[in-house]
Description:
Blueprint: H1 2-7, H2 12-31, H3 40-45, H4 49-52, H5 59-71, H6 78-89, H7 112-126
Helix pairs in contact: 2-5
Amino acid sequence: xxxxxYEYNLPGQSANRLLNIELGLFLLAELMPMxxxxxxxxxxxxxxxxxxxxxxxxxxxxxxxxRARTLLAPYRSRTLWMAAxxxxxxxxxxxRAYNLAGLGGWAPEMGGSTLRKREDVFxxxxx
Length: 127
């Protein structure tokens, strides 16, 4: 987080929020790759159409979900998650690791080494 904070000149709370949103998007990509970004509360709460149609998970993916339910507890609220996505979409494209259009995915504007660093942070946070 410190590197992100200084790289983009963000206050600590904003850098933390950015990483939490991206952690949620990473979790969705790992567990429900065909679900839209709006489906995170369903995933964290264990319900909804996208959750019911999820693929068969490996033990690692169940661990990710268990850990994410603690780390991303505020985003169990659909209202909070949607507000966070709105703020995230207003950030400059160069700061966002994820594209929110369509099914999302990694943002093409961000360099490969930066994406790999963030992915590594997310894997460590959930692992």
